[in-house]
Amino acid sequence: MAAVFLKTHKRTIYKHLLTLIWTRGTVRHGSVGSGRIEKVLIANRGEIACRVMRTAKRIGLRSVAVYSDADRHSMHTAMADEAYHIGPAASQQSYLCMDKILEVARKSKAQFAELCKQEGIIFIGPPSSAIRDMGIKSTSKHIMSAAGVPIIEGYHGEDQSDTKLQIEAARIGYPVMIKAVRGGGGKGMRIARTEAEFHEQLESARREALKSFNDDVMLIEKFVENPRDCSVQRRHQKIIEEAPGPGISAEVRQKLGEAAVRAAKAVNYVGAGTVEFIMDAQHNFFFMEMNTRLQVEHPVSEMITGTDLVEWQLRVAAGERLPLTQEQIVLSGHSFEARIYAEDPNNNFLPGAGPLLHLSTPAADQNTRIETGVRQGDEVSAHYDPMIAKLVVWGEDRSAALKKLRYCLRQYNHHSELFPEAKRPSDEELCQAALALILREKHDTQQFRNSSSDVFSPFASSNGRRLNVLQSRSMTLQLGDNKVEISITYNPDGSYSMQTRDGLFHVSGELQHEGDVTFLCCSVSGVLSRPKIVLLDNTVHIFSMEGSARVEVPVPKFLAGVSGSGTQGGAVAPMTGTIEKVLVKTGDVVQKGDPLMVMIAMKMEHTIRAPKAGVIKKVFFREGTQASRHAALVEMEEEEEASME
Fold first, then answer.
1. Cα–Cα distance between 521 and 512 in angstroms, integer?
2. Does any domain span residue 174?
3. Whose CA is closest to 425, among 534, 557, 544, 537?
4. Under a CB-based contact definition with an 8 Å cutoff, are residues 295 and 274 in contact?
5. How far apart are CA 413 and CA 542, in angstroms?
6. Using CA atoms, how far apart are residues 350 and 389, in angstroms rounded to an integer?
7. How many helices (H) and strands (E) does the chain have?
8. Cα 77 to Cα 350: distance, rounded to the nearest angstrom
9. Could you give the dihedral angle defined by the CA atoms of residues 298, 304, 305 and 311, in that order, rounded to the nearest 10 degrees?
10. Residue 563's pLDDT is what?
11. Residues β-bridged to residue 65
12. For the Biotin carboxylation domain, which residue ranges apply (predicted)?
């Protein structure tokens, strides 16, 4: 991957998706912050919108946000100087609806150049022709080949029939990569390793591409096995990125940069953009695509070059010269970026929608950046990407940067290094959980006592004594399917003696609050510690540098709600999402692993398969409806049971 930043004098508009920025100002005079650009409309959401706003505010520009129903109370909406509603949660009816974006541009007077040049509007970005040519993968391949940029051979033709695509896949040779020509971010991309699975993967890629880009035209390329990379990926999406790319010589890096510049010049590119290459084990590289915008991972480039690429974009759009020439840019140190996602490690890392009940991050400093678009209490919507934040670190070399990354990741709430084995909390952690619960009880009692209006009530006594309170008690804690009893004695000095199955512990401590984070400052038999504590209803979450633990207080059966997720044997929704396609009907006979439904959640497609062989007794959802996590999708019965009815 190579970043390019070119400046010409061509400006025009494009009607495309994501990361669009329009500004209002005068075309001929001034510069950023002094009249040429006064206001920026950011036609995006989440983390990247917040990222642009931070730079805009720093250099004195007003920002305008757009938001959907789902983002009414989001962080990017709150950060902006102005915010405009543009429709329902679905991207196709809001963020991808260009007519609505343009209407906001008119209302906010942050209009764009080509349509209203006479009013002094500047579009921040490359020419529409460059975006169009580079945004269509098949077109970009032809242009790159003509410009002498190496490409992977494949089929980029107009005939999109299933038969033609399958013939071309056979000609190229399996495994092949099926890609949406207007795709990006891993959407609309599938690998077909054999001819037998080609059709299913093609249909899946088409559906996802249509939802994400409103276009389902595909290209077929040879899949490169074991490529070299500067990122760790899952489901074709980058999770960890680094710069500079490891194991690449200065000579190869120079060639990559030269090829990226040739690619940009071939389409008269303006502003910031990213050219992606794929490299084999022999360091041969081939053009993949050009993203005509700043990519998610642009901070790693900023960290090793000491630049602010968003500011550069704004200044170039204002007609200023680039702050530095290529010769003046020197790579310094090494940088990593890790994307922090709302996902469920116990559910194959599927995206998880819902409220962020607790969120704490590492402290930011000159070598650590936290790029985020959410706050504790915000909702992670099923309609958008599940990324919560980007953690970006810098070190003097790769080893130092990696050490810094690991240190900071441990400060996030993680689940036993992401791949947990079932681990019983230690006796010390059980004592910490019990202490946290006792301290919360004391706090709640004090709050009740303070709120009492009856000064003669025994609960309003200022000395804190309560009638009929025993000096010892038993507390039951739930560890998965097992229950653990702890005998607790209240000592005169305010400490506690806790008897577990394996020993007696002397415990004391207090809860300390720092912003939204709660710490338990405690001593367990003389060992001092200060873990983070999250108390949610009947559950205690303990986070320390050594790992994490979760302890529950059992809810009595007569108070427990009856779960509605049972299916009498069937399939359930693994996450909240929209039913895109129903593949079965009542009475159908299915085998284990057969596809039942296709769900779209957080811009990704998920196929729900039969957990066992049987007969479909009932289908609970129609296409286009929303299903909550763990909702029953279909009811199944054994084939013998169905034949007896």
1. 7
2. no
3. 544
4. yes
5. 9
6. 17
7. 13, 38
8. 27
9. 30
10. 33
11. 42, 83
12. 36-454
H helix intervals, 85-196: 98-108, 128-135, 137-146, 162-172
535: left (phi over 0), alpha (psi -120 to 50) or beta: beta
CA distance 568 to 400: 54
Considering the domain architecture, whether residues 447 and 541 belong to the same structural domain is answered as yes
Mark out the alpha helices in 30-135 (DSSP H runs): 46-58, 75-79, 98-108, 128-135
Verify that 435 and 555 share a domain, yes or no. Answer: yes
Residue 25, Cβ density class (10 Å: 0-12 exposed, 13-18 middle, ≥19 buried) = buried
Q: Which of 18, 562, 93, 108 is nearest to 295 (CA)?
A: 18
Sheet holding 589-590, edge to edge: 570-572, 632-637, 614-619, 589-590
What does the alpha-carbon distance between residue 125 and residue 141 come to, in Å, rounded to a whole number?
21
Tokens for 596?
């039942």
Q: Which of 507, 529, 559 is the last residue of a domain?
A: 559
Instruction: Give pLDDT, residue 640.
Output: 60
pLDDT (mean) for 461-467? 49
134: which residues sit within 8 A by CB, 6+ positions away?
140, 267, 269, 273, 289, 290, 291, 292
Domain containing residue 606: 570-636
DSSP letters of 201-234?
HHHHHHHHHHHHHS---EEEEE--SS-B-SEEEE
pLDDT digits (tens, 9 = 90+) for 250-280: 899 999 999 999 999 999 988 888 898 888 8
pLDDT tens per residue across span 282-294: 888 999 888 888 8
Q: From 521, 519, 524, 511, select the one nearest 430 (Cα to Cα).
A: 524
Report the C-alpha dihedral over residues 238, 244, 246, 249, rounded to 10 degrees.
Answer: 140
Q: Which residue has the higher pLDDT, 285 or 468?
A: 285
Residues assigned a catalytic role: 293
* Contact residues for 641 (Cβ-Cβ < 8 A; gap 6+): 615
Structural domain count of the chain = 4
Query: Using one digit for the tens of pLDDT, what is the confidence trace for 54-69?
Result: 999 999 899 999 999 9
Identify whether 372 is part of a domain: yes
Distance (Å, whole) CA 538 – CA 542: 13
Q: What is the mean pLDDT of residues 216-234?
A: 81
Q: Are residues 511 and 592 in the same domain?
A: no
Structural domain includes residue 519: yes
More confident residue, 417 or 369: 369
302 lies in a domain? no
**Same domain (yes/no): 547, 478:** yes
- Of 511, 528, 559, the last residue of a domain is 559
Check pLDDT > 80 for residue 551: yes
For residue 218, what are its two tokens? Answer: 């595909």
For residue 591, give both structure tokens: 């085998």
Cα atoms found within 13 Å of the Cα of residue 225, Cβ hemisphere only? 5
User: Residue 144, class by beta-carbon neighbours within 10 Å (0-12 exposed, 13-18 middle, 19+ buried)?
Assistant: buried
Cα separation, 597 vs 593, whole angstroms: 12
> Which pLDDT value is given to residue 392?
96
Say which DSSP state 321 is in.
P
**DSSP code for 272:** E
CATH number at residue 456: 3.30.700
Beta strands in 345-432 (DSSP E): 350-351, 354-355, 368-372, 379-380, 387-395
Residues 144-171: what's their mean pLDDT?
Answer: 91
- Confidence (pLDDT) at 454: 58
